Amino acid sequence: MSGHVPVMLPEVLEALAPQADQVIVDGTFGGGGYSRAILAAAPCRVIGLDRDPDAVARGHLLAQEMPSRFTMVETQFSRLDEIDHPIDAVVLDIGVSSFQIDQAERGFSFMQDGPLDMRMGKDGPSAADVIAQLSEAELSALFHHYGEEREARRIARAIVTDRVDKPYLRTSELAGVVARVIGRKHHDGIHPATRVFQALRIYVNDEIGELEKALVAAEAILPAGGRLVVVSFHSLEDRAVKTFLAERSKAASGSRHTPTLTGPAASFDLITRKPVVASDAEIAANPRARSAKLRAAIRTCAPARPRPISGLRGVPTLDQIRRAA
Ligand SMILES: C[S@@+](CC[C@H](N)C(=O)[O-])C[C@H]1O[C@@H](n2cnc3c(N)ncnc32)[C@H](O)[C@@H]1O
């Protein structure tokens, strides 16, 4: 089993700028690449979070190495506001780790046969349950919204027709039906099952919902000057981060006609106006870095917005997907 190569590590460290005695939350511990680099960059403390028990076990090994500087917590990063300690910065590296993809039995990969699972936290309904239980219209909406799959309707129809005779239980079975419907080559040259697997993974783990809650939680717990750094890997996630930070960094302003301030003050100042992307050299060495986008911001002293996140236009929730179906 290969390890996980951390993506955009120098850029993450620059955006986080860890300082002595700070407490930094690595909300996606994974293989610990970010945590170790942060601990090496400054005499600070790191709290690692991950929902995957395998990642948590790796984190406990790091905690044994550095008991006074590193703590590992098994939890979802949407709950980071439950951390009972003042926090100076939060970093999130959204998505799956190579540890998860490379282990066929976790069911994330269409390249290797394994159970159709995809649960990062190893609990709740699996991808096989979703494929068995959603209606044709729901599956189609899911593949369309979360996978941006053009052939969503045809794939959903084929699945629902076939599952009457035999449930889909293996990754190879699902990859097979997608390839059968849309042909061996996808229209944009990627593996035909890429988008369907991505959509299912996002749904099974409620990845967009988790991210939205984590952004709001970070806003709530970070003090003035605290940093939020997010690396994401596909357009829906990046859109969620971009929309949140754009909304929260918009300064309240009056107009020529109504010069008094309107609306709440900005709760974040952007460090990155445009997303930072990986260098050509990093992409050549690690193709996973190709789609990575880093966005970062510094918390202002303005209060956190009282209302829940509202600005994620265009990123449907699970309920909206069901209703659209
Ligand atoms: C891309 S990997 C992180 C790799 C890490 N930065 C490193 O350098 O090794 C993403 C990790 O985040 C975890 N994860 C994804 N969604 C999560 C969530 N909502 N809550 C907690 N952990 C999550 C996954 O289990 C995975 O281990």
TrEMBL record:
Q: Where does S-adenosyl-L-methionine bind?
A: 32-34, 50, 77, 93, 100
Q: List the Gene Ontology MF annotations in alphabetical order.
A: rRNA (cytosine-N4-)-methyltransferase activity
Where does it mainly reside? cytoplasm
One family from Pfam that matches here is Methyltransf_5
Q: Which GO terms describe its biological process?
A: rRNA base methylation
Q: What class of enzyme is it?
A: transferase
Write down the EC number: 2.1.1.199
Catalytic reaction annotation: cytidine(1402) in 16S rRNA + S-adenosyl-L-methionine = N(4)-methylcytidine(1402) in 16S rRNA + S-adenosyl-L-homocysteine + H(+)
Q: Does Glycoprotein appear among the keywords?
A: no
Task: State whether keyword S-adenosyl-L-methionine applies.
Answer: yes
InterPro entries tied to this protein: RsmH (IPR002903), SAM-dep_MeTrfase_MraW_recog (IPR023397), SAM-dependent_MTases_sf (IPR029063)
What is its subcellular localisation? Cytoplasm
One GO cellular component this record assigns the protein to is: cytoplasm
Q: Give the UniProt keywords, A-Z.
A: Cytoplasm, Methyltransferase, rRNA processing, S-adenosyl-L-methionine, Transferase
PANTHER family attached here? 12S RRNA N4-METHYLCYTIDINE METHYLTRANSFERASE, S-ADENOSYL-METHYLTRANSFERASE MRAW
Similarity annotation: Belongs to the methyltransferase superfamily. RsmH family.
Role according to the record: Specifically methylates the N4 position of cytidine in position 1402 (C1402) of 16S rRNA.
Q: What is this protein called?
A: Ribosomal RNA small subunit methyltransferase H
